[in-house]
C-alpha cells in the first residue's frame, strides 16, 4: 500500500528557518537526533518548538530491523565527550524535559548502559530540575546492565515492543518479544518509582485483537505509559504499509488502554514514542 497518504497523515511543510537553526546547533556539537536519523514525520513541529530526541552512541545500529531508517553496520567507538555535549545542548535549548534514545550496541558488553547512565547524570547536573526520559534497547536482556542504567536519576525508562509477536520475524528478526517484555518487568522491579513506557506501530498487518493482547501483556509486566502510532515506510527497501489505520481506531485503542490500567495512553496516526512526551508527563 504505497499510494497517496490519507488526509489524516498529511502534515504542513516544516519551517525552514527553525529546521536549519536546530540542525546547525545539533551538528555543531557533533550530536545526532532520532528525529532526523529515523526520518520522523514530526521533525518540523518539534524543531520549531526547540525540542529534539537525542540519539546516543552514534548513528549506526548493530541491528537491522526492517522498519527502521537508522543506518546499520559497524559503529564507531563511544564518544567520551557525548555526555557533556548532550547536557550542553539541553542547556542551550532550555529544555525542562529531555528525551534520549539510542542505537542498539550489541558490540558493547553492557549494550552501552554505563555510557547512557553517564549521559543522564551529566544532563541532570547541568540542567537542574529537568526530567529525563530514556528509550533504551533491550541491552541483550541483561539485568545487570539495566540495573546499572537505572542507577542514573531517570524519570522515565522506555523500551518499545514495536509490534505484535506474530510479526516479529518480519519486523524485528534480531529481537525477541518476551525479552522486550522482560526489560519492562525488570525495570519496574529494580526501580519501582521510575515510570516505564513502551510503544507499538500499527499498519504492518496486525489485527485489532493482537494489539489488545500486547496491551494486556504490557500491563502484566508493569508498563505505565503506552504510545501507538502509524507505521510509515521510510524507503522502498523497508517493509510496506499494509493499512493506514483510521483515527477512530486510535481512539478505541486509547480508551481500551486506559480501561486496562495504563497511566497514560497516547495513540494517533503521527504519534511516535517521544512525540510531545512532556505534555502528558509533567
TrEMBL record:
Its UniProt pathway annotation is: Protein modification; protein lipoylation via endogenous pathway; protein N(6)-(lipoyl)lysine from octanoyl-[acyl-carrier-protein]: step 2/2
What are the GO BP annotations of this UniProt entry? protein lipoylation
Q: Which reaction does it catalyse?
A: [[Fe-S] cluster scaffold protein carrying a second [4Fe-4S](2+) cluster] + N(6)-octanoyl-L-lysyl-[protein] + 2 oxidized [2Fe-2S]-[ferredoxin] + 2 S-adenosyl-L-methionine + 4 H(+) = [[Fe-S] cluster scaffold protein] + N(6)-[(R)-dihydrolipoyl]-L-lysyl-[protein] + 4 Fe(3+) + 2 hydrogen sulfide + 2 5'-deoxyadenosine + 2 L-methionine + 2 reduced [2Fe-2S]-[ferredoxin]
> Is-annotated flag, keyword Lyase?
no
Q: Where does [4Fe-4S] cluster 2 bind?
A: 61, 65, 68
Record flagged with keyword Phosphoprotein: no
Question: What cofactor(s) does the depicted protein rely on?
Answer: [4Fe-4S] cluster
Q: Name one GO molecular function term.
A: metal ion binding
Name by which UniProt lists this protein: Lipoyl synthase
What domain of life? Answer: Bacteria
E.C. number, please? 2.8.1.8
Q: Where does [4Fe-4S] cluster 1 bind?
A: 35, 40, 46, 274
**Which gene holds the coding sequence for this protein?**
lipA
Q: Which Pfam family, giving just one, matches this sequence?
A: Radical_SAM
A GO CC annotation recorded here is: cytoplasm
Q: What is its main location?
A: cytoplasm
Amino acid at each position: 500500500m504505497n499510494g497517496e497518504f490519507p488526509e489524516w497523515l498529511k502534515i504542513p511543510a516544516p519551517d525552514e528557518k527553525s529546521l536549519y537553526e536546530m540542525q546547525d546547533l545539533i551538528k555543531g556539537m557533533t550530536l545526532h537526533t532520532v528525529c532526523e536519523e529515523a526520518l520522523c514525520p514530526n521533525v518540523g513541529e518539534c524543531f520549531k518548538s526547540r525540542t529534539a530526541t537525542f540519539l546516543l552512541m552514534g548513528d549506526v545500529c548493530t541491528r537491522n530491523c526492517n522498519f527502521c531508517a537508522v543506518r546499520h553496520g559497524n559503529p564507531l567507538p563511544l564518544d567520551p565527550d557525548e555526555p557533556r555535549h548532550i547536557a550542553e545542548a539541553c542547556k542551550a535549548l532550555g529544555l525542562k524535559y529531555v528525551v534520549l534514545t539510542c542505537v542498539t550496541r550489541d558490540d558493547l558488553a553492557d549494550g552501552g548502559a554505563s555510557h547512557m547512565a553517564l549521559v543522564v547524570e551529566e544532563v541532570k547536573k547541568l540542567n537542574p530540575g529537568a526530567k529525563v526520559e530514556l528509550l533504551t534497547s533491550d541491552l541483550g536482556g541483561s539485568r545487570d546492565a539495566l540495573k546499572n542504567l537505572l542507577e542514573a536519576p531517570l524519570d522515565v525508562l522506555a523500551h518499545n515492543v514495536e509490534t505484535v509477536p506474530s510479526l516479529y520475524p518480519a519486523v524485528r528478526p534480531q529481537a525477541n518479544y518476551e525479552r522486550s517484555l522482560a526489560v519492562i518487568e525488570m525495570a519496574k522491579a529494580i526501580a519501582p518509582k521510575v515510570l516505564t513506557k513502551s510503544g507499538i506501530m500499527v499498519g504492518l498487518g496486525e489485527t485489532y485483537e493482537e494489539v489488545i493482547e500486547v496491551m494486556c501483556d504490557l500491563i502484566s509486566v508493569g508498563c505505565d505509559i503506552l504510545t501507538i502510532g502509524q507505521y510509515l515506510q521510510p524507503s522502498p527497501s523497508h517493509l510496506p504499509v499494509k493499512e493506514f489505520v483510521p483515527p477512530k481506531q486510535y481512539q478505541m485503542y486509547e480508551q481500551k488502554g486506559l480501561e486496562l490500567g495504563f497511566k497514560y495512553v497516547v495513540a494517533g496516526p503521527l504519534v511516535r514514542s517521544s512525540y510531545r512526551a512532556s505534555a502528558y508527563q509533567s
